Description:
This protein is of the alpha/beta class. It contains 10 helices and 15 strands. It has a single domain, classed as UDP-N-acetylmuramoyl-L-alanine:D-glutamate ligase. The chain has helices spanning 46-56, 71-83, 124-128, 131-135, 148-160, 190-197, 204-216, 256-269, 274-288, 301-312; strands at residues 9-13, 17-23, 38-44, 60-64, 66-68, 86-87, 90-92, 97-104, 110-117, 139-142, 164-167, 185-186, 221-225, 231-235, 239-242. A hairpin with a 3-residue loop joins strand 14 (231-235) and strand 15 (239-242). Helix 1 (46-56) crosses helix 8, helix 8 runs antiparallel to helix 9 and helix 9 packs across helix 10.
Amino acid sequence: MTAARSSSRLFVAGIYAADLVFAAQRLPSLGETIQASGFMRSHGGKGSNQAVAAARAGADVCFFTLIGDDAFGEDARALWRNEGVRSLARVIPGQATGAAGIFVEESGDNAIVVYPGACRTMGACDLEMVEAEIAAAKVFVIQLEQPVEAALRGLELARRHGVITVLNPAPACPLPEALFPLCDYILPNESEASRLTGLPAETPTQAEAAARALLSKGVGSVVMTLGDRGSLFCNSETSFTVAAHKAGACVDTTGAGDGYTAGFATALAQGRSPRQAMLFATALAGISVTRRGAAASMPTRAEIETALAAMAQPPQ
């Protein structure tokens, strides 16, 4: 039986990863050992980051993932309870929970290696097991840290039930052509857009050309994040950019893209227009980069609204 649809519920599917974060003046070269200036263990995984960010931003969130029967899995369940995320996580005996090694330079730039753990086995049947929960949502969000097969099936199920679909194609990888028309919105960054289309996306003109190449594949609308140049919206009717929000010094970009995706999806689920959703996402991501960590850096709804108010004021 299909669950009753929530007017603003967000369904997020993806992975959880225990983040091991090392801060250093620079990244080590291959074969080199350097001393870190700091270390923290945090919560990550694109799907989990997005679920936590959305919950803090005021969304009614369900999160589906696969975790192992280990200490990292226990930590993940505690995180979701504390953050108000309704967990649909399934424990896979004998499998490890995901983990990530994150290296952060003094500039805030990072390099990441991720092991999906139990989510390596996520397939179409796993999404089918939570079809009723997908059908009850307003917006469905998924990324590409679990197998593409799972993303494709999740998008198909959401489309079947008239749920707005959002794909964050990260990390970028070859995708079946059948997947693109299932995306009401696709949210790549410049490098992901370039990898998906084979086109450069470094300048504004190039970014729009890459966005239009994604539209030609059947995507409904493209929202491309452009770093400190803001973000680009493009569909068959219009294109525009939203400026980035600088909330303070950038100390860690880990999770910024997840925050943007979560903010955009949260605002859509609550009935805001795409432009309004981009502004909301921009405020959220702009705050997150001023803090260390991934899930830990995500701001509250009150902080986002304060930033939006500041963004609306003319410069002095």
